[in-house]
Each structure stands twice: as C-alpha cells, then as structure tokens.
Predict the 3D structure of the following.
Amino acid sequence: MYERESNTLFSGTGRKPERIREILTKLEIVWKQYPDMRLGQLLLNVCGNCDFFSMEDEELLKRLQYNQFPIEESD
C-alpha cells in the first residue's frame, strides 16, 4: 500500500488544527439563531450557490460572519 509522509490525509504541510474550533464556534452561533434549520439547509443558505466542496475554510468563516446570516454579538 501507499505510505503517507505525514499524518494528513492529503500531501503538503496540512492545515492549522485551530481553525476547526473557530469554524465550529461560528457555526454554532449562527445555527442557534436559526434552530429550525437542518445543518445542510444552514450551510447551503450561508454558502449560497457556490462550489462548497472547494471552498476554503477562510471563505466559510467570512460567510458565516457576514453573509445573509450575520452573527449577532451577545452583550
């Protein structure tokens, strides 16, 4: 079988693991504002008509923060 050079699924230096918590935190905030939506509905509404598979994490973070579902900051 093939050997991997690192612990990442794909070749390269890998992505920063801390991005996972940031994305999940923002997703949780937005989802709690729209609890009746299913996860797939929410992601499609946030991401719009785009190639979701190829979207970079930074773009998803921007869309979660500023798209049609802006995060409401709590006091």
User: Anything to note?
Assistant: The longest helix spans residues 18-33. The chain is about 45% helix and 0% strand.
